[in-house]
User: Fold these one by one.
Assistant:
Number 1:
Amino acid sequence: MNRRLWTFDFDGTLSPIVPVRTEARMHPACRSLLHELVRAPGNLVAVLSSRSLEDLASRVPVRGVFLGGGSGLEWRLPGGHRIVPGREVVRSAKNARTRIVPLLEKISSVPGADIEDKRWSLAVHYRRVPPNERAALVPLLDKVRRHEDVRVFEGPSVVEILLVPGWDKAIGIDHLCRFLRFDPSGGRTVYAGDDENDGTAMRWALSRKGTALAVGNRPGVPGARAVSGPASLANAVRRLASLSGSEGDVCRRTASG
């Protein structure tokens, strides 16, 4: 039996976007979906997030799921084995963090701006920045984007600053496949996500004739199938996996994602 790899982002994909990020929890339909996928023969199921591995693990209480933190820089396998980055990567992330501290201090002084430390990345949340204060935030974020020591991804009212510039979720999921000796070609991969970093993994899956699901019609990846939210995602995946319980929600393939 050919195995199939199902990979999901967490925030905005398995969990609705919430005003307080520490309160993010999996949608009940998505939690049931993961249990069903794990139990079905031939499936490998992974959740890949920019959150730290420890944070992610506390939010995905489903046995048998591969958990990737830091956009796949670290993984926890179902048996408990961990894949961790080497010393060079750790040193690179530490140095990048040190170099952008002056910019971060200026950003944190903007009213409403909130910086979340995810160990391997820093997320600048600006949902609560008043409109009259955003003019001060924009040039600071532009300076971060131009900084050679980091890589920046856009999300819903957030800018993700990855402290390892040569990394993204596409590399993270490819790294897992190599470790597992899993061949992702021939349509055996499905990826679901909602932001620019997820877009790298969607393109990776599509380039291997797999399926990409863009939740909330983001991030604009040609060939991805748009679903409106976590519940719709669960229905769409059930149909793809030939699981029972689909309520007939329709995926629509988009020309621009």
Number 2:
Amino acid sequence: MSARLKSGIKFIVFLSVGVLLMYFAFRNISLKHMLADLKQANYGWVLFAMLFTLLANISRAYRWGMLIEPLGVKPKLSNLFYSLSVGYFANLAAPRLGEVTRCSALYEVEKTTLDTLIGTVIAERVIDVITLLVLIVGVIFLSIEKFSTFFWDTIFKGKVHSLLAGSPIKIFLLIFIPLVFAAFIFIFRKKIIRFHFIKKVVDFIKGIGEGLHSVIKMKNRGWFILHTIFIWGLYCLSGYFCFFSVTATSHLGGVAALFILVLGGIGMSAPVQGGIGAYHIIVQSGLVFLGVASDKALVYATIVHSSQMLFMAALGSISIIMLNIEKRKQLKHA
């Protein structure tokens, strides 16, 4: 099977899942009333919120540069920003494609290796997951009786129950098979490492390890942490100001914005293009939990998600042009 065919199949599968999720989100909603609500929304607040998203992306680009610098390379902030934007644009085509795409984009304009760049992106993703978990805990403690119920009943309870409900044989196999596989790899590791494909995988993993190690070697870890707080704070402000675009959500405050930010982060991490469908369902559920009517909650989710996707598409398109200009400049001076 060719690489293009595989990519095509993945695209269709992920898109189909996203469309199915969108169907579940909109199935009980009057499209006529929703279109009327969308027309009445105040998009001035949405445009204002985009400024915070832009600042967050610039800060994220700078933070990525901090991860790369210990590897002996100091990319220009503009190239980091353009590459990051191209990566976000690529995520609209296929989930997780953006990570590789932004590394490839930066690799073409900066002197560094692709494997180590991917390692820095993995390190960044690990940090963002940790940040999201910290925010979940923070939201729960801000109103433990209220939000702990939502996270347990809506997100975790079903998964925990499904694991515990398995038969003893199923649980045994889930533990036994990975252990046997690990033992097989360990025993025959010297023979396995001789294969050309395995050597490439090992080299790739080493590159990733170097990228992850850059976090430990980082000089300004304090600034890195501050940038992380700044980025997520801007995301929260963006969502907060978007509340004012819809009358039904305009009364919600900062804690609600943080709560919806966390849910949106979980929705966007779903394996579908741009979190389509997953974002709508989980944000809608969160707003309904806060007392917003189901149809109005979906209006808010649709406005925020659509504006973000359009913003990333526009920014990504401009960034592709700017990176091509940068490459031409480098060729002229070569």
